[in-house]
Known about the structure:
By secondary structure, this protein is mainly β. It contains one helix and 23 strands. The protein has a five-stranded mixed sheet, with no helix packed on it. The longest helix has 7 residues, at 174-180. The radius of gyration is 31 Å and the shape is elongated. The protein starts with 9 loop residues before the first strand and ends with a strand. Mean pLDDT is 77; it is low at 154-176 and 178-216.
Amino acid sequence: PDGASTEKPVLFITSDPPGASVSIDGEKIEQPTPVRVSVDQAQEAVIEFSLPGYLTKRTTATVKQDGETQISATLQPVPDLLGGFEVRCAPACDDLLIDGAPAEGVKRPFRTARVNASAGQHTLEAVNGVNTRSRTASVEENKLTTVEFVFGEQSAAPAMPAIAQPAPQASSPGAPRQSRTPAAQPAPKARVEVVTPSASASGPVSKTGPTARNTADSPAFVTVEATSAQGAVPGCRVMFFQGGRLAATGSSGSPIKLEPGSYQLKVSRDGFAPYETQKYIASGSQSLTVFISGK
């Protein structure tokens, strides 16, 4: 009774969020919050609030003999049973993927990042320039698992894995030259292609050399489609590198904006071998189809 006098004391019970079930001294009230309840006499009362997805809360209130006693409670959500990763990169990483998808809430580039993950095993992939490192690690509920990625100076030449650990050749006169200029080694093996604007998503790729018109200031919008021996492969991670740094990233089937120029393209997805090649990207909207093979 709003503002009305009553012979019995009255409790006005509210909760945030509303709709919580209420019991007074163990006696359940049929109506959820907000609710007004009359009691037999002024006394100390134990009020219990419960709502699915929230922690049960108990509070004690002194019921006034005259007027209305207001009781309110703020309910806390049940703690998320997620675990998490603390990812450390040396030097800083340009990107981080968890199970093939970009990690959310991570500011790129980063040296240390914390991300949530459901309990179980996950595959993490860190990107540093044109290099990637992959780790498989497990997460337990409400626990933090530390994963470290270390990128050495020689890891800048992914196309030449034999140079990744050149300790026995450190004193060789030829070895230092290869480790100091790793980016120049893959160039002779790369296929340089011009991706020309095409109205058709499945149009052919021109293999003519770059021209002055291709270097126009207008941007390029490249849609990369991946296919395998079994057919189309959706949901691939697409990365464009330029000068050894990550220039743009996205997913297959979605346009990616780039400035015209030469890029190293990498397309990857779990269960398939990464596809890497050198591409010259011309201005305008265009599509590119790449073939990836299973591991």
